Amino acid sequence: xxxxxxxxxxxxxxxxxxxxxxxxxxxxxxxxxxxxxxxxxxxxxxxxxxxxxxxxxxxxxxxxxxxxxxxxxxxxxxxxxxxxxxxxxxxxxxxxxxxxxxxxxxxxxxxxxxxxxxxxxxxxxxxxxxxxxxxxxxxxxxxxxxxxxxxxxxxxxxxxxxxxxxxxxxxxxxxxxxxxxxxxxxxxxxxxxxxxxxxxxxxxxxxxxxxxxxxxxxxxxxxxxxxxxxxxxxxxxxxxxxxxxxxxxxxxxxxxxxxxxxxxxxxxxxxxxxxxxxxxxxxxxxxxxxxxxxxxxxxxxxxxxxxxxxxxxxxxxxxxxxxxxxxxxxxxxxxxx
Length: 337
What we know:
It is a single chain. The protein is mostly helical and 337 residues long. The chain is 72% helix and 0% strand. The protein is built from 15 helices and no strands. It is globular, with a radius of gyration of 21 Å. It starts with a helix and ends in a 12-residue tail after the last helix.
C-alpha cells in the first residue's frame, strides 16, 4: 500500500542519513533531528489517514480550522516584523493544503458558501503576505480547477455567470499581485537572480534562478552515486550555492538515490491512479470532489519542483486525504445527507 511504501522510504532516509553522516548537518541533537525529519512525517501520515477514514467530516473541519490559526499567526508575525523559524514556502504549503480542504469541503457541501467566500478572501490576502511565488501560482491553479468543476455541473445561467465572474476576479487578483506586491516582484526577478550569484550554468537553467542552478549541478553527483545517493542532507556540501536541496525531487534522486526515488515515484503513482480510478466509478456528487483532490495533486507535484516536502506536514495531510478517499470500500456518509 502507499502508506507502507512511504514508511520504507522514510526508514531508508533515516538510515542513509546516518550511514553517510548527513545527520551531522544538524547543529543540535543531530540524530534526534534526523529522526524528526524522516520518521515522524510518515507517522503523521498514518494518523491522518486513520482519522480521515473514521471521521472524515470532523477531521476535515479540525484540520481546516487548525491550519487557519497557524496561517493567521504566521502572517501576523510577518506583518509586525517578529522573527519566525518557518520560511515562506513552508507557510505557502500550509496555505495550499488549506485551500484544498476548503474546496473539497465546499464540493461536498461540508462548508457553506459564506464560509467559502470569507475563507477565499482571507487566503488571497495571506498569499500576498506570505510572498511565495510557488504559493501564488498553486493557489491560483487550485481555485481555477474548483471553479471549472463547479461550473461544469451548474445548470442555470446565474450559476455559470457567478463562476465566470469568480475566474475573472482571480485573474484580476493575479495581475494586481504580480504588478504591485512583493510576491509579484519576486516572480519577475526569478530570471535575474543569477546576476547576483557567483556561479552560473551558461544554459537555460539560469532562467529558473537558484532552483535551475541546483538541478544543473546535481546531475554529475547523481551519476557518481546513482543507487544510494550522496546522503540525506549532504547536498549542502556539494552545492555551489551553499544551500540545502530546494526540491523534493533532488532530495529523492540526488541525496537518496534510486533506492528512494523509484519507490517515491511509485508512491505518487499509486495515490493518483487509485484516486482517479475511484472517482471514475462515481456518478453522484462525490465524483467532482474526488476529481478535485486528484487534480490538486498536480499542484503538489509542482511544489515539489521548488521546495523539499519530505518533512512538510501540510503535504502529508493531502497525501492522507488521497489515501482515505481512494479506499474502494469506503462509505461516503457526507454525500448521503
